[in-house]
Amino acid sequence: MMQEFIDQCKKILGNENVRETGQKPLRTATFDFDTKVEVMLFPTSTSELAKCLKYANFYKVPIHVVSRGYNIGLGSSLPPKENSALIDLSKMNKIIDFSERMAYISVEAGVSFEQVFDFLEKEKSSLMMDSIGSSSKASIVGNTAERGHGMGMYADRFSNVCGFEVMLPTGEIIKTGYNAYGEDNKISPLAKGGVGASLDGLFTQSNLGIITKLTFWLRPKTDFFQTFYFEVETDEECGRVSELWKDLQLKGLQASLRIFSDTRLIAFNQQKEKNTEWSEEKRKELRESLGVENKWIGFGGIYSPSKLHAKADKKIIKKYIGSLTKNLVFYDEQSIELAQTEEEKEKISFFYDKSVLRGYVSDQPLSMCYWRKPQIDKKTNVHKDKCGVLWYCPIIPNRKEDVQKAIDIVETISSDYKLEPNVGFLFVSERAIDITGAICYDREQESEEAMARECHDKIMEAFIAHGYVPYRLGIQSMELINYMKLENLTFLRQLKNTIDPNNILSKNRYIL
């Protein structure tokens, strides 16, 4: 049936938009996984997509859909359950609407963060997007569909989008929020929710439909933007700083923060030498070679509306966390003028002038994937270069004891498997911390693949055992959804059976 389906899709899309499998896999992940892509389809419109879905249902062909396929470390483009046809929406990449006055942009599924950044620059817009800490080529819709993170005040991606257009697995289109009232209503790009049952959440982290369009909210740039950097020496102090930051967030401070381990910064900037034993002494040596003196690094942005606010915000941050941190430094417009050496200018460019915290995009974080690939100098493609990356994503309460417990889990289990503890704490909301944990390894070393996967599983089992559940899953960890209550799983399965009667769309993606 697959070949008949492919033949029909060629008639719909043209041969140039259908890529069949050959000797090499069409798509891979950053870890071993049993499924493969049988054929890749590139529709250019919702009409073409609907026709492909019609034939997928007719021939009972399993399909998996990605916006651009940059879900690195969580499965990339691979189907989560069985060999499937892959529908890649990267050619549905139009910017549909933009309002400088109302601070929003509406996009199709294939629009990347880089594309929106370039668009705003070309328009000489006074607005900025909330960027991403991963590939600039990643899709805004894809990141939203996974309930991924931003970098600034709109870091809670899902809370800062609205007006979805969703194609159901049968090819029908529905609109969410105020979009449901039709295109002529004036509120659809401006507010979330709508009247009656809210549908947006059903189509994120699920396999109930395909988000083909949405509206993405923007923020005004501020002339008084600052960034800040600090270091923390001990795990106990890291927990205390984290909880103090919660208090600042609850009081309404307009600032973002992430704290990450020195190992993450090391992996951003270096590659591990072969046959080098990891130890606390080696760790200290490597971080000090980068000018970092302590184990934990904090980096954040302050989005003050005026000069007086900026001064007060800086003062209150110093008051709350200054005594617990080392090397606390703030960057602003004046920092650029004061920079003397090329090294200083480069540092300020990264931490301030071209920072992702003010809407710029950067592919530098992908360098981390090459941590255990010292034989590769030119870092071009994490998949082709056989970089091993597994993300684990638990969420914990923002309390100092929970931060310390999380650190203990990660460091103890990583050490057991002789892997470096690469972890970040994201302060996306006031009361909880999203953890981004990365296991980086060399896929060309057979022993490392099994070791990394087992380490990933043990870490997540330990978090769940301590009451810390995942906020996001990769195809390597979808079975963790079974920790949910049976009643919830049954309800979701009933929805799936109703909306996708032939069960063609992304089997086992959050709904098993």
Would you mind describing this structure in some detail?
Helices cover 31% and strands 20% of the residues. By secondary structure, the chain is of the alpha+beta class. Strands 12, 13, 14, 15, 16, 17, 18 and 19 form an eight-stranded antiparallel beta sheet that branches. The chain has a five-stranded antiparallel beta sheet with strand order 5-6-10-8-9. A four-stranded mixed beta sheet has the order 1-2-4-3, with helices on one face. The longest helix has 20 residues, at 446-465. The two termini are 24 Å apart.
Summarize the structure.
The chain has 512 residues and is an alpha+beta fold. The chain contains 13 helices and 19 strands. It starts with a helix and ends in a 13-residue tail after the last helix.
> Average pLDDT, to the nearest integer?
95
DSSP strand (E) fraction? 15-25%
State the total count of DSSP E strands. 19
Helical residue percent? 25-40%
Distance between the termini: 24 Å
Question: Layout of helices and strands, plus pairs?
Answer:
Blueprint: H1 2-13, E1 18-20, E2 37-41, H2 46-59, E3 63-66, E4 84-88, E5 95-99, E6 104-108, H3 113-122, E7 127-128, H4 140-145, E8 161-167, E9 173-175, E10 210-217, E11 219-220, E12 226-232, H5 235-250, E13 255-261, H6 262-269, H7 280-289, E14 296-302, H8 307-321, E15 326-331, H9 333-338, H10 342-353, E16 387-392, E17 395-397, H11 400-416, E18 422-426, E19 432-442, H12 446-465, H13 486-499
Parallel strand pairs: 2-4, 3-4
Antiparallel strand pairs: 1-2, 5-6, 6-10, 7-11, 8-9, 8-10, 12-14, 12-15, 13-14, 13-18, 16-19, 17-19, 18-19
Helix pairs in contact: 1-2, 5-11, 11-12
